[in-house]
């Protein structure tokens, strides 16, 4: 089953390498347990993966609702789909906010300027406004390169379960894995 696990991480690694080429796994849907106890799902950009550690990373605004939700219940589920290949990857894991200033700073500096604009917004995500324009940062001088850094949050997900589904025309196959003591265990299941 090692080749299936390697394939999953290779597809996720390609997704996280969007600076080179965007792949079907660059955007994932991330589901959390809402503050009201119900499921909440949204799109995130996969920013990094570590196949060895079985973890991945995404960026978000520390003021967003998902950060509050994950603070209360760190369980998270992520889903990606390659519609052309007929491959679905479902992940379950536990999220942690990265505290290290050095790590946050390094990824902030590696990010493209346009992807950091959202962190400079005066109002927290989800704040009611009279019109969309009200959310835009006021035009003016070129912002300080660190403006908004205080809102920049790195979320690492330690993946604990993988559900891989291949519904390509010649091959209907599904495999489930879970991580124990740093190794993946699992096998085929019926699709
Ligand atoms: C293409 C696309 C990519 C997105 N990438 C991210 C992302 O990487 N991080 C993020 O926090 N929100 C991202 N969003 C916005 C989220 O889907 C969501 O609307 C926002 O984070 C607020 O979610 P929340 O209220 O559940 O925290 C993206 C949205 C789209 C459409």
Automatic annotation (TrEMBL):
Its cofactor is FMN. Keywords: Flavoprotein, FMN, Oxidoreductase. Residues 11-98 form the Pyridoxamine 5'-phosphate oxidase Alr4036 family FMN-binding domain. SUPFAM superfamilies: FMN-binding split barrel. The keyword ATP-binding does not apply. GO terms for molecular function: FMN binding; pyridoxamine phosphate oxidase activity. InterPro entries: Pyridox_Oxase, Pyridox_Oxase_Alr4036_FMN-bd, Split_barrel_FMN-bd. It holds the Pfam family Pyridox_oxase_2. GO terms for biological process: pyridoxine biosynthetic process. The keyword Nucleus does not apply. This is Pyridoxamine 5'-phosphate oxidase. It comes from Paraburkholderia silviterrae.
């Amino acid at each position: 089953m090692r080749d299936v696990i390697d394939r999953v991480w290779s597809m996720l690694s390609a997704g996280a390498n969007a600076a080179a080429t965007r792949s079907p796994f660059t955007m994932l849907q991330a589901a959390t347990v809402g503050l009201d106890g119900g499921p909440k799902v949204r799109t995130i950009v996969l920013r990094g993966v570590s196949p060895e550690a079985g973890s991945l990373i995404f960026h978000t605004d520390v003021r967003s609702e998902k950060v509050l939700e994950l603070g209360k219940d760190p369980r998270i589920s992520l889903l990606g789909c390659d519609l052309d290949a007929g491959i679905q990857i479902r992940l379950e894991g536990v999220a942690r906010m990265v505290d290290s200033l050095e790590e946050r700073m390094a990824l902030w500096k590696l990010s493209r300027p346009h992807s950091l604009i959202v962190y400079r917004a005066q109002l927290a995500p989800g704040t009611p406004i009279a019109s969309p324009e009200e959310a835009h940062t006021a035009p003016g001088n070129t912002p300080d390169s660190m403006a908004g850094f205080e809102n920049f949050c790195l979320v690492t997900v330690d993946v604990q379960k993988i559900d891989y589904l291949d519904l390509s025309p010649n091959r209907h196959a599904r495999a489930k894995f879970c991580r124990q003591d740093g190794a993946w265990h699992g096998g085929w299941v019926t699709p």
